[in-house]
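Contributing new records

If you add data, match the layout below exactly. Sequence lines come first and carry their own label; structure lines follow with theirs. Keep one chain per record. Anything else will be rejected by the validation script.
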Amino acid sequence: MATNYKYTVCTRCFTYNQKQYILDALNGFVMQEISFPVVSVIVDDASTDGEQEVILDFFNENFDTHNSEVAYKEDADYGTIYYAQHRGNKNCFFAIVLLKENHYSQKKSKLLYITRWQDNAKYIALCEGDDYWTDSLKLQKQIAFLEMNPNCCMAACSAYWKDESGSLTEKVVSNVERELSTEEVILGGGGYLSTCTLVMRGSLARVVPKWRAIANVGDYPLQIQGTLYGTLHYLPDIMVVYRWKHKGSWTNKYLGEDLQMTYLHRKAEVEWMTELDRATHHLFQKAIYGHLRPYYPVLYRKKMVSTREYLHSVLLVGGYADYRSFLKNFVKHLIHYNTE
């Protein structure tokens, strides 16, 4: 029996200390030309830079907060919730959750706070607070394809990557509209598809296999799951801007100057992808270890993977240079071990 959803799409937007960027994201949501109801859930993780005030000002200026049939404000122990319909775009709804305490620092999930809207939506779109949509037909295009193709689990598109200087780089996976294979998504890594391009079926997000549950990131394993549970459709249209390498960004924190953070991130990636390999009965083993291959030498030198793990990767996907590198690192390991 078909489920009657209140919303066709729930757009999920988590944000923290992105005062200077958040208006771009909010404007990208309300500019969507859509023939179906969309609720954008903006969760601010107790920002300290004044971002919550910026969000509320935008909300009060653009949404019908006085319509008691739709709008409401709710105080909860974890924060304050605001909900209303846009004054002009009647298919656009905002649900704002302003948290009292920073959940990221406490390693607490924020997903529980958005279930009332996410579980009432057929599809889920993703866009972090520092990214934004530039095409007013983004959702309409992606949802139209998903509606016509029930075997498709996820839709993505091309993007501009914008660095701190404002320079734009085109990130185009394919120049033609097509399905992306599991192997190419795995080999592409976390930056292959920009998170703010993704729209998926709600049923996909609600199924969390072990390898995704233990993952240290959310978007990359979700993309892989989209190819495993159905198809992942790619539109070559550039419809979003993904910010990277700016202050406070994920890329700057985990793949920036703090090498220890980078090592820990790579180690965690090895762990969940090894579980992915087991869960998929090694069907994509070459792609998985082909992606992980550059990580093993440095992780081995940092004593974050064992000799057995390192050798296993070399035997699976290594070339002559990888064998030489392994032997060199192994000899150094033995010398260091025997002199301790």
